[in-house]
């Protein structure tokens, strides 16, 4: 193969992996600073949203991000259909990202029945907040198993990023 093409491919892959690692670090930091609390309760059937405020991330020089949804209180019953409408940019998709745990900007509390998960197909691909293991197994919230850990290590090895297996 052409050496130049090989170098270009290597550079492109390195850039994507570097950006991925940077994004993982940024997401972890945002998650640590998030004021949105998720609680899973074993004796509950409904999803409760309490005093949920969702905002855009802070920009340099700003004290607060733009608020999209303010002090939302809502109970979602099992099998209840909900229609979310609004203008472009009003926070519809961001609300769903928040419920899925991939949007940390805001405050409030969301209580889910134990074992429930939220999954949706976003407009853009997103990496969920958490460890690399969580990203690879999303939306499952299952605990680590030896068999699952072995599969993840094999995948990382195939991608030649085995050194990330401790993340």
- Output the structural class: alpha+beta
Poorly predicted residue ranges: none
How much of the polypeptide forms β-strand, as a percent range? 15-25%
What letter string, H or E per element, gives the SSE order?
Answer: HEEEHEHH
Mean pLDDT: 84
Number of domains: 3
> What distance lies between the first and last C-alpha atoms, to the nearest angstrom?
34 Å
Question: Percent helix among the residues?
Answer: 25-40%
Radius of gyration: 19 Å
Please provide the count of β strands.
4
Provide an overview of this structure.
There is one protein chain. The protein is α+β, with helices and mostly antiparallel strands. It folds into three domains: 1-33; 35-128, no CATH class; 131-167, no CATH class. Helices cover 35% and strands 20% of the residues. The protein has helices at residues 3-33, 92-100, 132-137, 146-158; strands at 35-41, 47-55, 67-76, 106-113. A four-stranded mixed sheet has the order 1-4-2-3, with helices on one face. The longest helix is centred in the first third of the chain and has 31 residues, at 3-33. The chain is globular and about 60 Å long. The mean pLDDT is 84.
Structure described in brief:
The protein has helices at residues 3-33, 92-100, 132-137, 146-158, and strands at 35-41, 47-55, 67-76, 106-113.
């Amino acid at each position: 193969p052409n050496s130049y093409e090989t170098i270009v491919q290597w550079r492109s892959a390195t850039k994507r992996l570097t950006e991925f690692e940077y994004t993982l670090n940024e997401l972890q930091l945002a998650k640590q600073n998030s004021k949105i609390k998720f609680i899973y309760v074993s004796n509950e059937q409904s999803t409760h949203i309490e005093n949920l405020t969702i905002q855009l991330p802070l920009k340099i020089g700003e004290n607060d991000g733009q608020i999209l949804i303010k002090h939302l209180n809502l109970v979602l019953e099992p099998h209840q259909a909900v229609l979310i409408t609004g203008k472009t940019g009003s926070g519809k998709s961001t609300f769903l990202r928040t419920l899925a745990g991939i949007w940390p900007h805001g405050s409030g509390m969301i209580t889910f029945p134990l074992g429930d998960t939220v999954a949706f197909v976003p407009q853009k691909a997103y990496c969920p907040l958490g460890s690399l293991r969580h990203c690879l197994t999303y939306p499952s919230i299952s605990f680590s198993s030896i068999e699952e850990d072995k599969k993840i290590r094999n995948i990382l090895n195939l991608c030649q990023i085995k050194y990330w297996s401790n993340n």
